[in-house]
UniProtKB/TrEMBL annotation:
Any one biological process term the GO annotation gives: DNA repair
Entry keyword DNA repair: yes
InterPro entries from the UniProt entry: DNA_clamp_sf (IPR046938), Rad1_Rec1_Rad17 (IPR003021)
Main localisation: nucleus
Protein name from the UniProt record: SsDNA endodeoxyribonuclease
Species this protein is from: Cichlidogyrus casuarinus
């Protein structure tokens, strides 16, 4: 028996997911009972995780759970072979003959009688940051339509200093999410009250506000990629300031109904907004 072998006709789905999590040049792939897990981490600060579930494969078999590292850019390049409808139907086979690689990709284009096999060298998987975000009852979170973040995207530029997430406790007069972007000496503040019809779910059981700053470099790229193709977004922040951005993706011809998770650590010099008076605060609503 081959160590790992899986066949799928949803190459576009896999390709779309890989492009979404492309925040670094390497990816850790894990064979698990429920499917393949792709983890990308940048500078031990931002981590992206996507699952390609067993149900999306025509066949899926493996001997044991195993994870390894390979170059994400090369994987995307190979998966994107024969991209486009003009080639007709196809099946993509992913395989590993024995533990330790290499990782094999075989693409068969049925109508054209084309078959291409490529291999990628694999490396030992590196340790990744363990994010403790499993118990939502102990975390602060909000769920709302991803389209609400489009206005925030308009002001998140590469020159912006940072982005700050603030959740007000349930006991506050007006519980809400505030997103602040420091840009050109100004704070641009976006508000989404709990009472808004756009808010699907909200919880902040802390006694005081939960507020942390995050690097704009990673957040901007994640939002640019995920907001346009997502239905809802869930923001979860734990007591240590670790943040989860979970995007529930549109189901279409390229993407199955699923979510992609992005985890971020707060800035080391995390300062709660309000300890120093900013030159100017511009309030904006992100309610649609």
């Amino acid at each position: 028996m081959t160590f790992f072998k899986a066949i799928t006709s949803r190459k576009r789905n896999l390709l779309a997911i890989l492009r979404l999590i492309q925040i670094h040049s390497n990816v850790i792939i894990s064979f698990q009972s429920h499917g393949m897990v792709f983890t990308v981490e940048d500078a031990k600060y931002c981590q992206a995780i996507a699952n390609f579930e067993k149900a999306q494969f025509l066949s899926y078999e493996f001997k044991e759970e195993y994870k390894f590292l390979l170059e994400l850019n090369k994987l995307i390049e190979l998966v994107s072979l024969f991209e486009g409808n003009r080639y007709g139907s196809y099946v993509l086979e992913l395989a590993m003959e024995e533990k330790g690689g290499p990782f094999l990709l075989k693409l068969d284009v049925v109508e054209k009688d084309i078959s291409t096999t490529c291999s990628l060298g694999v490396y030992p998987a590196q340790e990744t940051v363990g994010f403790n975000m499993t118990c939502e009852k102990e975390n602060s979170y909000i769920v709302f339509p991803a389209k609400c973040l489009r206005r925030v995207l308009q002001d998140i530029e590469e020159t912006a200093d940072y982005l700050e997430m603030t959740l007000y406790p349930n006991s506050a007069p007006n519980p809400q999410l505030k997103i602040a972007v420091k840009k050109m000496g100004e704070y641009l503040v976006y508000n989404l009250p709990q009472k808004s019809e756009s808010v699907r779910s909200y919880n902040c059981s802390e006694k005081s506000i939960v507020s942390h700053q995050y690097s704009i470099k990673y957040i901007r790229k994640v939002l640019l990629h995920c907001v346009p193709i997502s239905d809802d977004v869930e923001i979860v922040i734990n007591s240590e300031g670790q943040m989860l951005l979970r995007f529930m993706l549109h189901e279409n011809e390229n993407i199955a109904e699923q979510s992609v998770d992005f985890y971020c650590l707060p800035k080391v010099e995390d300062i709660v907004m309000g300890t120093a008076s900013p030159p100017l605060v511009l309030d904006k609503s992100i309610i649609y």
